[in-house]
Amino acid sequence: MNFTYRLSDIESTASQILKYVKSKNVLFSGEMGSGKTTLIKELVKQSGSKDRVSSPTYSLVNEYEGITNSVYHFDFYRIEDELEAYDMGFEEYLDSSNQVFIEWPEKIPNLWPQHYSLLEFTAEDEQTRTIVLTEF
User: Fold this and answer.
1) Are 25 and 102 in contact (CB under 8 A)?
2) What one-character DSSP code corresponds to residue 134?
3) Nearest-angstrom CA–CA distance, 31 and 120
4) N or C, fewer C-beta in 10 Å, the chain?
């Protein structure tokens, strides 16, 4: 499924994506600046969280409290080796009942969950993004 949207339409786009995503594990793939974190901020907000959402580039994971469950937001941009994710207990987060958002999943190809939703981002121009959603 494809979504093309303007950044000014991020709220309705996030709402649509939440309707179609089938997995609690969502992988966000795309170049730097393609809109991954921006969409995650809105998805977390729509989960009912009042938390301030920021990219966990240095901490690797942020936890946000939603209305019914937590959201774990991973950013693996800066890791050098999959062992870093393994050593921090990444698999335990996947085993939880909580929503898991993973930016830069390309850095941990051997740790992807068995079932996941993949969102692949492309920046068409400064204000327009395309997302391809695939379920695995």
Assistant:
1) yes
2) E
3) 9
4) N
What's the chain's Rg over C-alpha atoms?
14
Predicted local distance difference test score (pLDDT) of residue 58: 80
Task: With beta carbons less than 8 A apart as the criterion, state whether 105 and 76 touch.
Answer: yes
Count of Cβ atoms closer than 10 Å to residue 111 Cβ = 16
Q: For residue 40, give the nearest of 97, 94, 100 by alpha carbon.
A: 100
Distance CA 74, CA 70 (A): 13
Instruction: State the DSSP code for 8.
Output: G
pLDDT, position 74: 97
The whole-number average pLDDT for the span 57-79 is: 93
Q: How are beta strands 61-65 and 70-75 bridged, if at all?
A: antiparallel
Tell whether the model's pLDDT for residue 56 goes beyond 90. Answer: no
43-54: b or e for each residue (b if 16 or more CB lie within 10 Å)? Answer: bbbebebebebe
